Every structure is written in C-alpha cells, then in structure tokens.
Amino acid sequence: MLDYRLDEETEALRKVVREFSQDVIAPQIGAFYEADEFPTAIVRQMGELGLFGLPFPEEYGGSGGTYFTLCVALEELARVDSSVAITLEAGVSLGAMPIYRFGTEEQKQQWLPRLCAGEALGAFGLTEPGGGSDAGSTRTTARLEDGHWVVNGSKAFITNSGTDITGLVTVTAVTGERPDGKKEISAIMVPAGTPGFTVGKKYSKVGWNASDTRELFFDDCRVPAGNLLGERGRGFSQFLSILGEGRIAISALAVGLAQGCVDESVKYAALREAFGQPIGRNQAIQFMIADMEVRASTARLAYYRAAERMLRGEPYGREASIAKLYSSEVAVDNARYATQVHGGYGYMNESAVGRFYRDAKILEIGEGTSEVQRMLIARDLGVG
C-alpha cells in the first residue's frame, strides 16, 4: 500500500521550517516586499538552519538529506512568502546542484561548503534576451585564450545574481561548433566580481519583489580554464537535466503558495463579518475554500509522485512536467480565489494574499512555461 506520510526526520524539518516561516519571515517580509529589498538577514538565517545544504552530503557541508526534503522546506516557506522560497530554490537547484552533479572534486570542495551554509549564493545563467523558452539559441560565447575562457554576451532574468552574498554565476556559452555543425555549448563558472562581469539593475517586477533578479553582461570577462563545469560541449544537456529536477522544486513552491491561500482564507472567513455573521457561514465562501483545498492537496500528490520516482532512480520527466504544470496553474487559481474571499483587503499589497496574487503568475512561466510542459508531456506520450 502506498504511504505518503513523512518520516519522523522530514516531519520534524517541516515543523521547524513552518515555525521559522511564521515567526521570523511573516512579521517582516511585507516591508521588504514593499521596498523591493532583498532580505539578506533572513537568507542568512535560512543558511544557519541548514536549508541550503538539505540535499547535499555532509562531506560538502550539507545535511545529508534528499531532494524531497528540499521540496518539503520550499513548500513551507512558500506558504508564507515566495520571494524567500525562490531564493532557496534557485540557490540550491540552480546554483549549487550543477556543481554537485557535474563539478570536479576540487570545484565541489571550493564552492559547496559556502553555498550549503548560505554564506554565498549561486546563480544559473541560461536565459538570454530574446531567447525565452528557446534556451538552445545561446549567443553568449566563450573562447580559450592563454589558459582562460574569455566570455562575451548577456543573460536575462537571472535569480540571485546580484545580492551582497552572490558568490558565482554558472553560464552557458557557445565554445565552438560540433561535428554536425550545431553549436557546442558549455557551462562556465564566473565568480562574482570578476572583471568584465557586470550585474544590471534589479528588474521592476510584478511579483517576487523581495527576491533578486537581474540582467548580466560579459565583456571580455576572463576566468581560468579550470572553471569549465562538466564536459566541454555538454553544458546545455547538463542544464536540461538540472531543469528537470528544478520543476519538482518549483511544483513544491507552487503547492506552498496554493496552501497559503487556503490558510489565509480559512482565518479570514472566521474573522470577517458581513450582514451580522462571519462570512465563512456563507456556502459560496465555503465552496470556494473547499475547492482551493482540493486543488492544493491534489497538486501536492503530483510533486510527491515525481520526487518519489526521481529518488528511486526511475524516469521522472513526465511526472515532473505534470507536477509543475498542474501546481503552477493551481497556484494561480487559488490566488485568485483567495483574493475574492478577502475582497478589497485581498487587493492590498500589505496582505499576504495580495502578495500571493502577484507572485503566482510567474510560476506558469519560470523553469519551463505551461506550454513547454504540455509539449514535453505529449512528446513523452508519443504524440506528435
């Protein structure tokens, strides 16, 4: 019989992250959000809790957990705020995980202890201006010259790339031409502060206002040849596998936002009175909240299933796309419903559901749009 109950250790972690989210993040995140300010102190506290090291071995400063434990933590963070949740997701899945999966032992020893401790953040430079979902259209280039890679080009919409604690950005770049005439794309690590590496201003975004997202520029940026991450010419395929894992993590984050909408709506329905009674006594409100809970619970099962297959070493691409597609759309629906339950108060930026409403939409876009997920699912089914 299937058993989706969390084991004692994971349940204990969930409770710790839940308490941290409610006691530390919730009281102050609204001010950071309004100011478009990155909450460095909160992120450092997340590092002290060991959240950035959850899926990594203890020998590299990690907690010795699994990718699923990371997902559980992401869900609990996103029940309160998605900006800090995406900071963790990107820092682990996109920043540190490529080094762990594909790096040399020297690269792991150099970077992972700091990344696992939250003392430094890693970023993932794949998307380019005008590229969007067509990540294979990479125009950034890197050429070998006197034992160094010389990088030229730009990247767009890169999370964690310009904070006070950003340590490095791993970028994909064209390093030559394959025998079949296609681009040879490799991954190269560029430490923060490297001459020729310029970080643009923070984007003015609709949501995720307390997270860091920027455009990056490389102008004859020189890094040692040893900063190549993984095999030369395998950069694009390496990062596609990283994105496959990341879709499960984004699904967990989306489930957290969807569940947060339920949490806030249940509380508000009991407190808000209209026409002489709490609005929760109205069947229309009851049904909206019930539907929100159904969606959040079902989406949770979807990411649990994808994570289960990944941890078993079984193919999980279809399940990851299903989880990411469904949970992101559920997050958007629940944010809309929660705003309706809260009425005018739900449209205020100071309210949690106001932030949920603004944060939800990007989940249908980032790390593979809903259309891309449908394409991948259909392709895996043998359609088209």
Automatic annotation (TrEMBL):
Acyl-CoA dehydrogenase/oxidase C-terminal domain location: 233-381
InterPro entries linked: Acyl-CoA_DH_CS (IPR006089), Acyl-CoA_Oxase/DH_mid-dom (IPR006091), Acyl-CoA_Oxase/DH_mid-dom_sf (IPR046373), AcylCo_DH-like_C (IPR036250), AcylCo_DH/oxidase_C (IPR009075), AcylCoA_DH/ox_N (IPR013786), AcylCoA_DH/ox_N_sf (IPR037069), AcylCoA_DH/oxidase_NM_dom_sf (IPR009100)
Cofactor(s) required for function per UniProt: FAD
Keywords: FAD, Flavoprotein, Oxidoreductase
UniProt name for this protein: Butyryl-CoA dehydrogenase
Ranges of residues in domain Acyl-CoA oxidase/dehydrogenase middle: 123-221
GO-annotated molecular function: acyl-CoA dehydrogenase activity; flavin adenine dinucleotide binding
Family the UniProt entry places it in: Belongs to the acyl-CoA dehydrogenase family.
Domain Acyl-CoA dehydrogenase/oxidase N-terminal as annotated: residue spans: 8-119
PANTHER family named among the record's database cross-references: ACYL-COA DEHYDROGENASE, ISOVALERYL-COA DEHYDROGENASE, MITOCHONDRIAL-RELATED
Gene3D superfamilies referenced in this protein's UniProt entry, alphabetically: Acyl-CoA dehydrogenase/oxidase, N-terminal domain, Butyryl-CoA Dehydrogenase, subunit A, domain 2, Butyryl-CoA Dehydrogenase, subunit A, domain 3
One Pfam family it belongs to: Acyl-CoA_dh_N
